[in-house]
Amino acid sequence: MWIWGGEVGLMKRGREGMFVITDKRIAFISKTNMSYRMHDVYSNRQRIRLEHNDNVFRPIDDYGISELRNDLDKDSINMQFEYNRILDLYAEEKRWGTALRIDLEMYHNAKKSYKFSVVRSWVKYPAKDPLQFHHMDWIPVITLFENFKKNLI
Question: Pairing between strand 15-21 and 25-29?
């Protein structure tokens, strides 16, 4: 919840979504079938965990693999990154916050980079945009990815 992400590059605009990690892929879900009420409850829980420096990378109750598949099929704006296509996954510490970078190998040896950050506060007008970001410890995500990647080889 409250993840701002998108492709890295000039004139590339990010968007808000959920960051989902499975044993085969990392997904970024912007359009979901999840109810507003359910999203609001889990967003508030995440905010409270962030304020208390607790682990924010926890499963969402009632959101499993079937819901993830439905969301991935729902809209092409939802992205998935299979582990075998990820070249590098690392954290970037910036003055404004911490970003998780994912470098992908695309078809015909092309490469794309994506950046994801956890948002602290938003502005909603004229368009929803993040104002501040959290300094996050992305090590649990990186370690989980490395463990899953080892099992694929």
Answer: antiparallel
